[in-house]
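Subject: Interface between my chains keeps coming out wrong

I've been trying for a while to get a sensible model of this assembly. When I model each chain on its own everything looks fine, but I need the whole thing in one frame so I can look at the contacts. Pasting all components below, labels as-is. Any help appreciated, I'm running out of ideas.
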Amino acid sequence: MLACAPLADGGYALQELTEQGDAVGPRRLARPDELAGFSAADRWLWACTVDDYPALIAAGVHVPRCHDIAVVERILLGRDGVFGDPTWPGAVVARAQGRPVPAGSVAVGTDEMPALFDLPGAAGPPDPAVDPIELLRDAYLDQRRRAGSDRALALLLAAECGSALAAAEMGAVGLPWRPDIHLAVLDELLGPRPPAGVRPRTLAALAAEIDAAFGFPVNPDSAVDLRGAFRRVGFDIDSTRSWVLKGIDHPAVAPLLQYKELSRLHTANGWSWLDQWVTGGRFHAEYLSGAVVSGRWATRGGGALQIPRVLRQAVVAQPGHRLVVADAAQLEPRVLAAISGDVALQRISADVDLYAGLAADGFGGDRATAKVAMLGAMYGQTTGEGGRLVGTLRARYPLAMGCVDDGARAGERGDIVHSVLGRACPPPGDYWEAVRIGRQQDATDAERRRADRLAGDRGRFTRNFVVQASAADWAAVWLAGLRSTLGDVPGAELVFFQHDELIVHVPSAAAERVAALIEDAADAARRMVFPGSAVATPVRPVIVERYADAK
DNA sequence: GCCGGAGGCGCC
DNA sequence: AAAGGGCGCCTCCGGC
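Reply #2:
Try treating it as a single job with all components included. I did that and got this:
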């Protein structure tokens, strides 16, 4: 294991360590352009992949595996109910020794201080008396001790460290993106690019239509204005969400819905987005693995996890290459089947289309209804059709429904829940005081209602957490496993990952092989994350030139 | 003028 | 079919 610490002078300290933390061989110092000389190292130890890996990637170093102190610390602290505390090695060691975390230090790449600021030396202590390699080693040994021999936790930590490597590489390599196709889409839907601050032609025309339909001027970008306008024409709505508008019979609705859709494209993924995020035919986002409490990824800038479907046609493989697009179909209900031990639902999970299987099993073949019911169960829907249908599921799959219901009750009590591999959800925040007050004998009706609402919100969060976080566990193991096997395929690049879906860009001749590796990795993840379970977590790799052709 | 929250909507 | 979970990002808007 090669410990690697950036130094204040821009260079690096490197030290080979045994798994027990003992130094092997001499301490080395390297300038950034000398890092390629360390490519043979199989496993790296460093403070934070988000901060430390990009420079190595730029130097041409591929890191097969790592131990990321920050990633591991975040998970370990979370299991102790601590969220948002500093995770850099000095903080880890200080906590281990019962000392206060040194003041003035800044944790980079964590929630409280995004790497955005990138202060020099921020990832480590400014104290020159402390040897950065020793600090790394001490933090590593403390984390190993705290992680103990929990097999599931070890798998989670390894998968999260691998995911962090994948995230950094993915941001660096970028998603193939054809600006010419993107521009053609914008031109077709919005018209020619207008000067800054001017509405594109299509939006201007729709705004005029909306004004004409109301008979007075309205700013369609303002929810306040719109609500007032609809009130004036006899519709008292408390939101202008599109599903609310769809229930209104008024000539302004149709152009307004169209306006909202196109305006969204213009502001979120229009010309300025293209200018800002696409360079050299690639969309470079900054991916943050495990940044969501459930373990899902987040991105900073570019909105890479919200690419609208209409722009997937701009994601095109380079000449001589293909995209292998794979998603884990209906992952969350399958994960629920596994973690709850519900054999009946596990049996359904063998179907390629789980919802169709559900429908045949208890919903008279009505797939749409079965899907609504299952989503309602996982999200905590209580009203309407979805809420009513959960009863049918409860009768047929009592273990699965019991699992999410238990999760909800734990949340309503203020308790913690965990993912299958042991990621903890955050404890309730300051608002829980209001729940406590509202549950006292002498609480007012208003206090009771507030407590019920807050506890209900918390229950829906924990209900969903057990499923969403366990799905994220599976996906991280899938991704990290695939990443390690892709090393044997020349030219294969992981270029996209979105919760339960990934894309590999690969020379055409190797596409079939990559598709097989993706399926193998999914099967391995199923066995490791859900050992002994009969659940199926199939993935469907599709080999295409354009992302839009994958579905 | 700055800033944070709200509203809204894209993705899963 | 109804509006339940998680995010990021944009604009608007009200408070300072």
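Reply #3:
Confirming on my end. Chain A is about 50% helix and 10% strand.
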